[in-house]
């Protein structure tokens, strides 16, 4: 499997969220990290929990994976892509996210 992962820029995701979002957003950060805020509509599944949560992720959706900087979400994309999912990695993660955060 290739190390290539498709990426989505924060600006593209923010624009998508202004309308009816086509993406399901999964935040793979740890509990204490998401306590500081998440992207509106995101679902929290910590990275190490993803293999145990696959039954909660229908394969007919497109997922945007999010973490602090983009590295863990990149790894989540690699794993999910191998399982037959369609994923995008949020480039730069929450460090580059400028949109509204929910607390």
TrEMBL record:
In terms of SMART domains, this protein maps to:
RHOD
Which top-level group of life is the source organism from?
Bacteria
Q: Which InterPro entries match?
A: GlpE_sulfurtransferase, Rhodanese-like_dom, Rhodanese-like_dom_sf
Q: Name one Pfam family in it.
A: Rhodanese
**Gene3D superfamilies assigned:** Rhodanese-like domain (3.40.250.10)
Query: What residues does the Rhodanese domain cover?
Result: 19-102
Against PANTHER family, the record matches this protein to:
FAD-DEPENDENT OXIDOREDUCTASE, SULFURTRANSFERASE YTWF-RELATED
Quote the protein name from its UniProt record: Rhodanese-like domain-containing protein
């Amino acid at each position: 499997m290739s190390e290539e992962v498709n990426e989505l820029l924060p600006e593209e995701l923010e624009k998508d969220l202004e309308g009816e979002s086509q993406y399901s957003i999964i935040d793979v950060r740890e509990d204490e990290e998401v306590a500081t805020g998440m992207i509106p509509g995101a679902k929290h599944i910590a990275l190490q929990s993803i293999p145990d949560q696959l039954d909660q992720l229908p394969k007919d959706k497109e997922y945007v994976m999010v973490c602090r900087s983009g590295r863990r979400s990149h790894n989540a994309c690699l794993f999910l892509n191998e399982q037959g999912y369609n994923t995008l990695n949020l480039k730069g993660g929450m460090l580059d996210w400028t949109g509204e955060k929910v607390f």
